[in-house]
Design goal:
Layout: E1 8-10, E2 15-17, E3 26-31, E4 35-40, H1 41-86, E5 112-116, H2 121-132, E6 136-140, H3 144-164
Parallel strand pairs: 5-6
Antiparallel strand pairs: 1-2, 3-4
Helix pairs in contact: 2-3
Length: 168
């Protein structure tokens, strides 16, 4: 059976910890006008480690909690921003993009749009949105396969729009 040292009280005597017996180390000294004193170093070290552990745990909870909340905030913000552009009843999606009859009018009578990162969810949705509005698209993507997939889906969209008319 392992001998236990006297319990260490923490947090204003609300928590008591018993640890296996450790040789008590003490600092003995004396001061003028005060006399001799003794400080139990083992007790101070163990309680310091306990407080340090609690502080580390609380800091970790705070750190990861704030990182998670910022991440969720950004995700929800982008979700709601995308929703206002993709919702068929929103004012932004009902805007008719007109092309002026100036001398600087592009060839073919339609404006051009450049989409960088076209195969991402936002880029793909924006490409489909602008294709429905009649824009010429210049799509930029790092990988060729997602760009080809997007090109095929846009061609399919344009074929359905030219065959059946716009569905707005």
């Amino acid at each position: 059976m392992v001998a236990k040292s006297p319990p260490i009280s923490l947090f204003m005597n609300k928590i008591s910890i018993s640890v296996p017996f450790i040789t008590q180390r003490q600092f003995n000294g004396s001061l003028p006008l005060y006399g001799s004193f003794s400080i139990p170093l083992t007790r101070i070290l163990l309680s310091s480690f306990c407080y340090l552990g609690v502080a580390s745990a609380l800091y970790s909870i705070y750190y990861w909690g704030t990182r998670a909340s910022v991440s969720l905030y950004v995700k929800f913000k982008s979700l709601f921003n995308a929703k206002k552009y993709l919702d068929s009843e929103s004012l932004i999606s009902q805007i008719e993009f007109g092309v002026s009859n100036q001398a600087s009018e592009p060839a073919g009578g339609r404006a051009y749009a450049v989409i960088y990162g076209a195969s991402t969810l936002a880029g793909s949705a924006f490409a489909h949105f602008l294709a429905e509005k009649g824009f010429n698209l210049i799509l930029i993507e790092r990988d060729l396969q997602p760009l080809n997939d997007l090109e095929n889906s846009l061609k399919e969209l344009m074929n359905t729009l030219s065959a059946g008319g716009k569905s707005q």
